[in-house]
Amino acid sequence: MVSINEKLPSDRKIRAISISIEVSYPNPGYNYFKHAVDRAERNNIHVIYCSLDDRQKWSFLPGIGRKPYDDPDQLGAYGPGGWYNTPHFLAYAATNHLVYVPCDCRTFADHHAENAYRFFRNGGQSWQAPWLAGLYALCAQANPKVTRDSFYAAFDKTGDAITCQVNGITNSFRPVASPIKLIESMRNRAKDPVLTP
Questions:
Q1: pLDDT average per 10 residues of sequence, the chain (197 residues)
Q2: Half-sphere exposure of residue 155, counting CA atoms within 13 Å on the CB side?
Q3: How far, in Å, are 83, 101, 138, 150 from residue 135 at the CA level?
Q4: pLDDT of residue 111
Q5: CA 20, CA 29: separation in Å to the nearest integer?
């Protein structure tokens, strides 16, 4: 990817890679993977993958979800994602620096049949990684100088918050992705030479 990127025009460069598998130590090949990720990041390609790895700095586990019939554009429709709605994950969310993106209720092409679709109520990290990579790519279009750190700083600043009851306990989740505010923030930074990326 890095060598391909070197040949692409500045406005067509690859800015994000999404990998929907868990890669963590001591899995075989982890050191090779880590080296490749480091090389990509040094060349301004943000790599988002499914792992609780300090290299990612900001984790996107657990995700947020909604009921299938709720409006996906309404912040109040969201709460903990389907299989994250457990005491263990909620405790993790309360004690770690996270970003929240949707992980549930997807319709997609069925790989078992032609001209068919499937709906899954619950998803997970493998659906969150491409969602987050897509958001990063949109921010890179708005501000080509965006970096991984400036992206997550702006995500934190522009993110929304949701509060919900789970098993009688009030839980707060923040920052929840607010794409319009985040992209607008990136666009404004691109216009102002005084601001950092």
A1: 90 92 80 90 91 61 84 89 75 75 88 90 87 95 92 93 81 89 92 59
A2: 25
A3: 23, 10, 5, 13
A4: 87
A5: 16
Listed in order, strand segments (DSSP E) in the chain are 16-22, 46-50, 64-65, 79-80, 106-109, 117-120, 160-166, 169-176
**CA angle in degrees (0–180, nearest 5) for 40-26-28:** 70
pTM above 0.85, yes or no: yes
How far apart are the C-alpha atoms of 71 and 8, rounded to whole Å? 39
What spatial distance separates the first Cα and last Cα of the chain, rounded to whole Å? 23
> 3-class DSSP state for residue 132?
helix
Pull the structure tokens for residue 196: 């950092």
d(CA 84, CA 101): 13
Which pLDDT score is estimated for 193?
56
* β 16-22/46-50 pair status: parallel
* Encoded amino acid at 19, one letter: I
